[in-house]
């Protein structure tokens, strides 16, 4: 089950469970749509994977399956992926 992390790892923007701005990779690294488009170029800076829109959990299921409250933030900030 997806953690539904509460914030963007780059800019720390709040991303509630129903946010249409939340983007994730297959490891659930979480970023806002602005950082994905303007800084990351659609690629996760952690794993190099594709970032796609995170699905929203139905509100009726949040009580039984709550979103994560653990905030993850890259201390060094985010930058575009560098070619190897």
Automatic annotation (TrEMBL):
Top-level taxon in the UniProt lineage: Bacteria
Pfam families hit by this protein: DUF1272
Protein name in the entry: Urease
